[in-house]
Amino acid sequence: MTETSEGSKVYQIKFESLDAYENYQFKFAANGSWADNWGLPEQGTAPLN
User: Fold this and answer.
1) How many domains does the chain have?
2) Is residue 9 within 8 Å of 3, Cβ to Cβ?
3) Which range of residues forms the domain containing residue 25?
4) What pLDDT was estimated at residue 46?
5) Which residues contact 12 (CB under 8 A, 6 or more apart)?
6) How far is CA 33 from CA 15, 28, 41, 46, in A?
7) CB-based contact 39:46 (threshold 8 Å)
8) Which InterPro entries does the UniProt entry name for this protein (predicted)?
9) Distance (Å, rounded) from C-alpha 39 to C-alpha 48?
10) Cα angle value 40/24/30 (rounded, 5°)
């Protein structure tokens, strides 16, 4: 994971070796806890389409 520009607090990840048409999802921790959630309401993960 890299910051897009220094101090921006915007990060990106590039995955290059993933199989097509799989059901990929993502989740990230914030503030030292898995309890904080951004994405779909009432969901712990969000799909990548």
Assistant:
1) 1
2) yes
3) 1-49
4) 67
5) 1, 2, 4
6) 24, 9, 17, 17
7) yes
8) Ig-like_fold (IPR013783)
9) 11
10) 50
